[in-house]
Request: fold
Amino acid sequence: VTVVVVGGSLAGVTAADAVRRGGYDGPVTVIGAEPAYARPPLSKGVLTGSESLESVRLPALPSDVTVRAGVAAGLDLTTSRVTLADGEQLPYETLVIATGSRARTIADPGRENVLRTLDDATALRVKVDSARSVLVVGGGFLGMEVASSARALAKSVTVVDIRTPLLTTMGPFLAELFTEAARDHGVHVVIAPGGVRPVFDGDRVAGVDTAEAGRLEADVVVTAVGDEPAVDWLGPSGLPLRGGVVVDEHCRAAENVYAIGDVAVFPTPWGLRRMPHWDTAIGQARAAADALLRGASATPYRPEPYFWTEAFGLAAKLAGHLPVAGRPTVLRGSLADRSVLLHWPDSQRPAAASINVKFPVPKLRKLATAVPA
Amino acid sequence: MRIEVDRERCDGFGFCAEAAPELIRLDDEGEPEILADAVPAELAGKAEAAARACPVAALRVVAL
Reply:
């Protein structure tokens, strides 16, 4: 009669805690590959060295939750057992899958620098520190934050992507704003619609070839081309996998099996989506815990997307379904000052962004709430 | 116990107030305002959850 949570990062620890505080008094075990820490600072303060490693650790779970180091290697739904990499079998009554995701790569894994884990960040920190130039492959949130941190360390920085950085994540208006800020900060932004091909020095990626800008090389090359769900251990389990573990609105993947956080593919109003964000990890963890405790009367997870990023002097919080289309209304401040509150008052897909202005997040979320016609 | 906010670290993400509305409220600028000097024993778990929800680890729950 045990709740087993596989994955000890934000989603996993939040679920374990919510199950316990929700009144479940049976055993709760969290299996984590590494101690729980916050990833958002990794590409910022940890990379620049302004943050200590201790400062990113998440507070410990209550003592009546068992936390064990381990990696899951297999799942048997018929016998309700998780097999760990060391061969141990763990029976569960209810299973919560929160194994997250790992960095996508452009070559075979292990040949390039990525930034996903605390170990990645500390290793990259050392390399960037002694480098003169940094090439970032991929201009999403992570890539732009890495580029910004490298610039803060006075490195010569190039970002290459197949389209304008942040275009697919934020939409054209904000993508342009951030890309302009990157250029203002001295970043060389290369747009290579034909894509990139890795260039090797020995077995390490030392640069990329592009059709548009030729060969790009740097002392340190960082790949930031997104993440992919950690589902390899679930391959033969029979769970519905479609770019992640497919769940329902209670984060249920099968009877007594839930999946939450970066690994979960959730039914949103915009279709089945993986939503690898802090806000989603917490919301889905609470929804799964609620479903586990209250069954049919539980509250389903309703995504109200909320993200943030900080790069090139722009600290932005965004609420609403991204990417955002069209031009926003300025509610406060000014774009010229790069200190502004923006609103896209679309009745179907509203969004709001605060950039370098202090504005309460609940109000930002409210601006991004669709008004039923 | 009580909740401490590191104002230098805090970026007003608001997750703490969502996790523990009985203990933390956001002010007009979105900054967390601690509502009780001492956390009542029955809300200790919520205080810890609020600290865990902070993406920049700006909250600490410390013994009085």
